[in-house]
Amino acid sequence: MLAIENAIYPFPWTQGNFRDSLAAGYGCWLYLCDAELIGYAVLMLAADEAHLLNLSIAAGWQRQGHGGLLLERVGEIARTSGARLILLDVRPSNS
After folding, report:
1. Looking at beta carbons, which pairs linking 33-42 to residues 24 or more positions away fall under 8 Å?
2. Where does the pLDDT of residue 36 fall: very low under 50, low under 70, confident under 90, or very high at 90 and above?
3. What is the C-alpha separation between 56 and 61, in angstroms, rounded?
4. For residue 60, what is the enclosing H or E element?
5. What are phi and psi of 28, to 5 degrees?
């Protein structure tokens, strides 16, 4: 995850960010293609809301629909967990 994160973001999450998210009990899902890690998502579920903290697809796999598929799966997980709303904070520089 760190290799993907460092390759695609100017301000990537650190190993500590991932570790803290897991320690806090946030869900983390890996997206594999032929046993290769090509993406991941981190989701915080709270009451009837879900906060999408990170959803990333490796550079060589982007623009092929993988991000949309992972987002759909995370949405299903959120709904199954009782979330009625999914929130995403985005930096103003992230077009």
Report:
1. 33/61, 33/66, 37/1, 37/4, 38/4, 38/66, 39/4, 39/66, 39/67, 39/70, 40/1, 40/4, 41/70, 41/71, 41/73, 41/74, 42/18
2. very high
3. 10
4. none
5. -135, 125
